Amino acid sequence: MEKNNRPDVKMGIVAVSRDCFPKELSTRRREAIVSHLGDKIYDCKIIVENEKDMLIALDDLKKNNVNALVVYLGNFGPETSETLLAEKFDGPVAFMAAAEGDGDLIDGRGDAYCGLLNASYNLGMRHKRVYIPKNPVGNAEELAKEILDFEPIARALLGLSKLKLITFGPRPQDFLACNAPIQGLYDLGVAIEENSELDLLVAYNEHKDDKRIPEVMASMKKELGDKNPYEGILPRLAQYELTLLDWARDHKGASDYVAFANKCWPAFQTQFRFVPCYVNSRLTDKGIPVSCEVDIYGALSEYIGECISDKTTTLLDINNTVPEYIYNEEIKGKFDYRLHETFMGFHCGNTCAALLRNPHMNFQRIMKRSLEPDHEPDITRGTIEGDIKAGEITFYRLQSTSDAKLKAYVAEGEVLPVGTRSFGSIGIFAVHEMERFYRYVLLQKHYPHHGAVMFGHYGKAFYEVMRYLGIQDIAYNHPASLPYPEENPF
């Protein structure tokens, strides 16, 4: 399966015009924006002055497969028609407006600065959420940049609208941290299909001797190289990968996109006779996130991040502190972070090989202690391990509370180019004011230990996606000058 589990965004722009203002002003200003974007946006030629124009424009957008719309106030704009356009369009919508400066201030003044206020008021009356950028009024070059910023936001919203989250559970015993009501999925319009791990075992057994297994094994061998001491586990892993891919294909139903939240311990090892981490990493690299430990909102968060960044994400435990001796030897004085602004993000082996330094197959050390304490690893083989590559990251999560209210957090930071001296898929993460973020967001707001990771700085886009979805509680790492509401000022 190719990386086709994310929507393609086709943006379109429609200019609107209040009939007592020059229509030509909106046309000229729209064309100026399009000149900066070229084929990155569909240029709808219909100028919307009234409701009939609005219907014609909608039909034109549909015929040209536009699924993300920019409503552009080239002048004051008709508040009824332009907001009806947003209400009837089937997809994410952004509103932007023209700044003055491309003509005289008598016959060439558009007053869109004023018109956008009326548009916002009317959108509120319709209870219609739209994307309005931080600086929604600007010249052609400025708004072209804002439109490009809208694209990843639109991709995430489109993906969520056609996503099915497939689970194989239940969650491990004494693991309530990943338990949250699924009402939030329905509130977002995300479909869910919940299954037993017995269903998964049946499907896995049905793939025994699948003729495609050698091909998948060859792909794994190529990725792992010729120094894999656990090559004997590959037939089982290939069989499992085909099981999940076929399930995704056959169970999409009315949805277009899929993510998994799967059981991975403790009975998994004794019945499937491997750990699924490496396969999970490979599917995530194909654009199909597979979260560990039936973490439903973890998988949802990963998928949102894949749409925003258009790249592979991962899911990690906010796991352990960085020892002071490692900090003193390799971080202090070299990077602008205090000890308590660093931590290790870890999971057993679910991060794809492309994101790891020296990726290699291994066994799950924690599980081996209880399942195979006295002999060579067999059923605990199947992790992909290595230190996570250094670079910018965004740590984030969308989560449901126990009373089914959605909340989110986001913090930008980086993975440091420092060896972890540990095991698993793991990295040393650095986030400014992390100790306060840990105390007054992660602990105070009762977040689970899993966090999703985008590789790059995408906090702005994630924040806007959450706002578009109507999430009221969006937390972030406050700078030292800004106390948290619950923070003791003394």
Question: Which consecutive residue ranges, at least 5 long each, have pLDDT under 50?
Answer: none
Number of distinct helices: 16
Structural class per helix/strand content?
Answer: alpha/beta
Strand order of the largest sheet: 10-11-16-15-14-17
Termini distance?
A: 56 Å
Please give the oligomerization state of what you see: single chain
Fraction in helix: 25-40%
The description of the largest β-sheet is: 6 strands, antiparallel, barrel
What share of the residues does DSSP label as strand, in percent?
15-25%
The outline comes out as: globular
Total strand count, please? 18
Protein model, in words:
By secondary structure, the chain is of the alpha/beta class. It is 37% helix and 22% strand. The protein has 16 helices and 18 strands. A 6-stranded antiparallel barrel has the order 10-11-16-15-14-17. The protein is globular and about 85 Å long. The termini are far apart. The mean pLDDT is 95.
Q: How would you sum up this structure in a few lines?
A:
This protein is an alpha/beta fold and 490 residues long.
List the topology elements:
Layout: E1 11-16, H1 23-37, E2 42-43, H2 51-63, E3 68-73, H3 79-88, E4 93-98, H4 112-125, E5 137-138, H5 140-161, E6 163-169, H6 183-188, E7 191-196, H7 197-206, H8 213-224, H9 234-250, E8 257-262, H10 267-272, H11 277-285, E9 290-291, H12 296-309, E10 314-320, H13 324-331, E11 342-347, E12 356-363, H14 365-371, E13 381-388, E14 391-400, E15 406-415, E16 425-430, H15 434-443, E17 450-454, H16 459-468, E18 473-476
Parallel strand pairs: 1-2, 1-3, 3-4, 4-5, 6-7, 6-8, 8-9, 13-16, 15-18
Antiparallel strand pairs: 10-11, 10-17, 11-16, 12-13, 14-15, 14-17, 15-16
Helix pairs in contact: 1-5, 2-3, 3-4, 5-12, 5-16, 7-9, 8-9, 9-11
